[in-house]
Specification:
The protein is α+β, with helices and mostly antiparallel strands and about 220 residues long. About 30% of the residues lie in helices and about 20% in strands. It has a 3-stranded antiparallel β-sheet. A 3-stranded mixed β-sheet has the order 4-5-8. A two-stranded antiparallel ribbon has the order 6-7. Helix 3 (about 95-115) crosses helix 4 (about 175-185). The radius of gyration is 26 Å and the shape is elongated.
Length: about 220
């Protein structure tokens, strides 16, 4: 569209600070917004490519996650108050997409940690809670404040873009972080997910029983 408007080959065009410039003619330029306003019903098709990942190297995303929570030892209810997470995903190409992936991954991890449990009749192989009435996932009321400490440092060894994956990494450390925060809060390890009220109350009772046996 800019090529047609400026009557110049596309190879001579570049975009800088929201304006389309003509190579070799700095006085000729047009705002991107002006071009897009003239598109009308036309369709824009974009194609992109990058170089392959390097051979002989493994590209990994690294991250850290901290959780603050409260535990009601009478009812076994665990309430996650805050999650702080940071992930090295190389160059951030789309900040909004990265933020959404991080928040979504942490939210899914909270569900995996505290709510989601598939109950199966092992004799018949039938899933007994095969709907969202019985298979519980987090709601808005269950999702705490999530702080994403952005890194965004390009990794020149990863590929030609310097970017790395961010789809699954925010999900992975959420359950361990919640379990560790739970242990830090009440001194009891629960090693099976989800960290349901029933499992927590059983673990607390066993912990108290062992304490009494040691004292006696």
């Amino acid at each position: 569209m800019a090529s047609a408007l400026l009557v110049v080959s596309t190879v001579r065009l570049s975009i800088v600070d929201g304006r389309i410039l003509v190579d070799g003619d700095p006085k000729r330029s047009v705002a991107v917004s002006e071009i897009t306003s003239k598109i009308g019903p036309s369709m824009l098709q974009g194609r992109g490519a990058r170089g392959p990942n390097p051979e002989g190297k493994t590209v990994r995303t690294f991250g850290a996650q901290c959780v603050e929570l409260e535990v009601d030892i009478e009812t076994g209810e665990v309430t996650v108050l805050r999650v702080v997470t940071s992930h090295d995903c190389g160059r951030i190409v789309n900040p909004k997409l990265v933020e959404s992936q991080v928040v979504g991954g942490v939210t899914q991890g909270i569900g995996f940690s505290l709510f989601e449990e598939r109950i199966v009749d092992h004799r018949l192989g039938i899933v007994l809670n095969a709907n969202l009435e019985e298979y519980h996932v987090p709601t808005v009321a269950d999702v705490p404040h999530i702080t994403h400490a952005v890194v965004g440092v390009p990794d020149a060894e990863a590929n030609s873009t310097g970017a790395k994956g961010i789809g699954e990494p925010p999900l992975v450390p959420t359950a361990p972080a919640i379990a560790n925060a739970l242990f830090d809060a009440i001194g009891v390890r629960v090693r099976e997910l989800p960290l349901s009220r029933r499992r927590l109350l059983v673990a607390l009772a066993e912990h108290d029983m062992r304490g009494e046996e040691m004292r006696s």
